[in-house]
Amino acid sequence: MTDKALTLKRKFAETRFKIYGLASLFLAMVMLVVIISSMTYRSIPAFTNYGINLEIKLANEFIDKDDLDYRGIIRETIFSLDSECDDRKCRRSFSKLFSSGAAYDLRDALEEDESLYEKNFNFYILFSDDADLFYKFGIDKNLPENERRLNDQEILWLEGFQEKGLVEKKFSSNLFTNGDSREPEIAGVLGAVIGSMYTILITLIISFPIGVLAAIYLESFASKNRITDFIEVNINNLAAVPSIVFGLLGLALFINFFGMPRSAPLVGGCVLSLMTLPVIIIATRASLQSVPPSIREAALAMGASEMQVVFQHILPAALPGILTGTIIGLARAFGESAPLLLIGMVAFVVDIPQSVMDPATALPVQVYIWADSPERAFVAKTSAATLVLIFLLIIINLAAVILRKKYELKW
Amino acid sequence: MPNYHGLYSLLWSQLVPLLLLLIFIVIDASVKELFIFERLPESIILIGQDEVNYSVNVIKDNIRNLDVLISLDILSIESANGLYNQYFLYRTLFLSIISLLSGALGFFAISRLNMRFDARRNVEKILRFIFFIFSTVAVLTTFGIILSLIFETLRFFSQVGFTEFMFGTHWSPQTAIREDQVGSSGSFGAIPIFTGTLLITFIAMIVAAPLGLYSAIYLSQYAKPSVRNYFKPMLEILAGIPTVVYGFFAALSVGPFIRSSGETLGLTVSTESALAAGLVMGIMIIPYVSSLSDDVMSAVPESLRDGSLALGATKSETIKKVIFPAALPGIVGAMLLAISRAIGETMIVVMAAGLAANLTANPLSAVTTVTVQIVTLLVGDQEFDSPKTLAAFALGLVLFFITLILNVIAMITVRRYRERYD
Fold first, then answer.
1. Is domain A190-407 annotated with CATH 2.40.50.140?
2. Which of B131, B206, B340, B406 to mutate to test the interface with A (most CBs of A within 10 A)?
3. Which of B105, B121, B145, B227 has a CA between 20 and 30 Å from the CA of residue B313?
4. Closest by alpha carbon to A240, among A267, A210, A269, A279?
């Protein structure tokens, strides 16, 4: 081989190698974009819902405000659309097209505006998930009738509403204001978000003081011996233990042994705080190490004790770094779901939890529950819930970045 | 310094009582349960001997809610009140003792105070001890994990043979409710689960190892600082996305995609194929591989690189022949950590891999993993003495030890490597 050919070959190899590197990086980025955009795209239908504007006639009725049959009023109103539908089977099939959440909406509307009790007024009734999907995506009429979610008669009704111009598409805030539900059109993530908040609060309360003080001990007071070495190895190991193992610990220790309640954010918080503890300890130690020894020496020279040096001089200087590390640890705990599955936080919880002892789910677990649901409308809801999850995580991490940028001291 | 004197007496009077109080709060519920259960037989209204067993079970189920027992006529209101009052009496007694102890300790501390007393040093001694206790929480957690896993696993092996579990090739943990049902005894051969875990981990590493390593090479050796500062956080985002999102993505998009593209090629592909879960898991662990490899390659001394370049080697030749071999122990450590991460990963496989324990190496078929089985065995209501639920703890113990060994080897190699160049 001539020199020139060899040089060319080496140059070519160089370029090829560089392209491999760039391509892998690019591929990883593409996957990131694909995941986020596919979630965004699939979540779009979750933010709107089709409904129908109908007149509710309360003007000439006698109304007992304390014992009002909201469901009955809704039923009466919707059957006014098709007076021929009077046998049981037809009526059941017809009311299947409307959301069972309509009765609750009506109750809320009436409670908000008392004057409505004596009026006829227009009211927006949500369609059920099947009818909603029909308007959003249509339906394959070539399928045999028994394999479809809607039969021929139901499709006829829905097309009839559309021709009469009664159907209206509206932004739906149910996703953000409701708890979980079996009906996709009224299910929301609020309960799960609150559950997550409680869990993270417990995690913070337990892991922050213990983690920071443990790190201070290891960094500033502990003499180097076998015991502290053993503790250090343990902390590093614990940081790499699979999260599900912490769930097993929580199940065996907190629930079976201590008899703490299943499904409660309290137990979830305890488990997650054991998981977060090593992260906080490691971050705190790194942050304490970055404070220059001159500060410590100066304080010691002025007659401060070891404890005073740490709490009055080193800790304030290291605090931004410690808080950043804590927030990052909490963000990880916020997105964690595997240990929560094992301690029973996968329960179907409709009510929004009021305390750390109430049964609750967490937002990532809610994603898992919805992803498992067979209703097709839950696909959009699940995607929307993942977006909420990612959005909250971005906010948490942004807080950490801002904290670091603004307060971190450079030595 | 009077505040140290105050702090000294405060610590003496509050520390031990507060600790006792904390223990009391934690065990209160279980003690109450035990207390009431011990004394219940005298108070139960028995209607006939046949109902004794039934009653005992009902009582066990409702021990925390005596109202149910009252409504079922198993317990009279008077005796329930009596039991409660008796328990509350003991409880009050215990709390009073704690308060008295607090007072006594406080007096003791105050009696020690005088002009010459070095309160600061004594306070700091106590605080230092408290901090030491906090630093042992991590050790206690590790022991807690090991003890609880071993305890439940031993109970499992008292019902199922060790060799059957470790070397059996058939896994179907469903135990029947009735004795005479077909296939009533579940079988607990965990080999298909282990091979399934290995298969998915292998696929994940095929994706993550080259992509992560090449990304790290590009970022640490080629990229300008501005590019690096931009792309490194982007890679970290991949690690920050919750795994449940990856799981949903794998189940919703990747699984069906692989299935349909396999079908156009005439292959039979399961929707819950090992390939889908493995691919997505691979994407998830790219940043774990890349960030650690990046660190170790940046730590290779500049002099090695400069020497190679000065001899006329191109950049890629330097990387391949000098930097990579020098950083190899660290890179191996990074890979081991990534493997351990993949083995312990739960949500992706729970959502995208199957439940059927097939013993196969075909990436297009459905396999199951250790973590999937743990979740399936333990989610939902279950009693805690059946081999079915205990099997989850045995699997957990295996998982814990395998990841522990991988982590320890990885940490040692990385540390040795760092020491070589420091």
1. no
2. B131
3. B227
4. A279
